[in-house]
Design a protein that fits this description.
Layout: H1 3-17, H2 31-34, H3 43-50, E1 55-56, E2 63-64, H4 72-76, E3 84-89, H5 92-100, H6 107-127, E4 134-137, H7 142-148, H8 152-164, E5 173-175, H9 187-193, E6 198-200, E7 213-221, H10 225-236, E8 241-249
Parallel strand pairs: 3-8, 4-7, 7-8
Antiparallel strand pairs: 1-2, 5-6
Amino acid sequence: MSTLKLRRITRCLTDLIYPRFCTLCYKPIPDEFAARRDCDLCEGCIRGLTFSAGFSCQRCGFFRPLERLGCHICELRRYHFERTWVLGEYANHLKRAVLAIKSSSGRPLANALGALLSKRVRLDIEYYDEPIDVVIPVPTHWKRRLVRRGSSVDIIAKQIASALSVRCPDRFLKVTRIACKQGTLDAASRRINVKDLFAIRQKKRMHAYRGKSVLLVDDIMTSGATLNELSLLLLRNGVRQVRCATVARSAA
């Protein structure tokens, strides 16, 4: 019996004793729906989290009204990453979810969002895209990790790595100083704010990632400055290709 089948059987038996509730709206999840899902979200919340009124740019993830229109964000900015997977736009259900996972009580919801995002990435990798060798979460300063009692981005990254059966190194990257919150700055200030903000924790381990394809994971992307700075750092240290996956994409 495969590990996946065993996991599903165990989940079904657990559901008989402890019924599952949606980690976003806290409503009970029907048994027949829960058995078909690997995440603790109800059908209504999944529709709300993944709904988007436009088309997402494959390069930067920005949503635009028509698929045939070119992405003006990519034309204005030089991105060092090659691809971005996005669960949806930063609004309504998804905005509420992203804000909720920033606290320690949001870990179950982070697991659920990670399961949804990993499914999207895995399907593209299997049928259209080239394989990913390693998944790396965007690092958080240790003081912020202490306040939040962990990092939801780490949880999401590990979910994706598990779905792709690849490594997800713990604390591979580090934040060198406390920076201003990106959400409080404009696009130009964001790029300055993250300049030389990140570093590789142990450069002697870098040889294992030279020539590899890396997937960077974050909870939200606005201007792309953070992911772009990290992509440049990895490429300069021998990584062959950088792609990104974020739960939400906000207006740049």
